[in-house]
């Protein structure tokens, strides 16, 4: 292991996507991530295509670089085992509501008693100081709560609709990984652990409103909310003679070049609507209509050649299938075809960042349920006899170790 978080141990009590995505990032960065699962396993294990039960594609892409241990936390023996893991851990991260952790007697105060240096991280729906504190939260609900479907309709969709990605889960997962890294740095400097809460609603509200608060930023307001360029219904992949193309002309130089390409080189000087970025933003609909009208005059390949020759921003429109064959991703080694110990040949995605030192690496492929229960419990001081008793009581589940 050579990642920058080598030597950090994380007790990961998260399930589904948001928390597991965060801890996979931390695991790829070198942390020893112990995934604590209930006897039934993480529910996302069986979501989508799979060769074997409990090992679906979405699970494989959010749970590598981890070890799996099963603990029934409703049993005293299971809770005791969790406490023994937490006693030697640097981080405990969970994504159920804090009220559920309190019912298990696994709140921050309970954990800090046995390990005052621990970073205790909650990743859940809503901050605990408001009326939504006890509400359940899922990606779709949070997208709706921060107006993403309404923005889609304002931008031209027939009806409000969610983004076709678990966007809130993954964005908040990134925020949680950042919080863990910063919390560890603070502890390194001060020696002090602490509780950190990363609420979905507030995190996503900041994400969306950073673009769209607009004139409502000021008191009193000086204009409407909404970023006009992003909301314009012509802000979309544009039809060419034979397909679609993604273009974005933004600064003065790019718009000047575009106007020259379409035979109006003096338009920025003759039309005050297009003279500055501020005026162009006010009249973005007219500009985008102009671009949309001219794109069908050439093929996609012809536009790419012309625009790239002028060093102007352009990108082909991928589908998921064509993205998997993208030549750039192939050249940088983004996709790795690996042999999973139980699932056979799978396509894995590399760690996207590159480091001149302490390079992250994928330490393990996603584990089977309880694959590392025996090993992790042994590290926590349990004897072979003790582990067998835990398994017999149902407080843990053992799976054969992969060799």
From TrEMBL:
The protein's enzyme class: transferase
Alphabetical list of Pfam families matching this protein: CoA_transf_3
Keyword Transferase among record annotations: yes
Keywords assigned: Acyltransferase, Plasmid, Transferase
Signal peptide coordinates: none
A GO MF term: CoA-transferase activity
Record-listed E.C. numbers: 2.3.1.16
Keyword S-adenosyl-L-methionine: no
PANTHER family reported in the protein's UniProt record: BLL6097 PROTEIN, SUCCINATE--HYDROXYMETHYLGLUTARATE COA-TRANSFERASE
Protein name: Acetyl-CoA C-acyltransferase
